[in-house]
Amino acid sequence: MNKERRKTLQAISAELSALKDETADGNALAKAKAALDDLKAAVEQIKSDAEEVQADEQEYYDNMPESFQEGEKGEAATNAIDAIGSALEALDEIVSTLDDAFSDFDSKTDDAVNSLDEAAQ
Fold first, then answer.
1. C-alpha distance from residue 82 to each of 58, 79, 86 (Å)
2. What pTM was estimated for this model as a whole?
């Protein structure tokens, strides 16, 4: 590796370390976590609302006469129930992603800095 690229990698490593230090003081990281917590709460509320609608639609279907369940109305209800179920799965994934957003920040940052430092040697 030539001197210029080595110097660039060292600068990148220093910048990443500074970013980690900046978040370690709590201010920037706390703001980001608070924003994610707000987003997570909003998604969880949307999920709760969708679960309620799904339960209502399931109850509507369950209380239909069998002839209606097998007809157009029953099919429309089951399609809606299934579609809401798919939406709920996606919302669960969003919540999980938000939960994991900061869990690996420090270790992944350390890994990146160490790898950059190794490459710059």
1. 10, 5, 6
2. 0.69
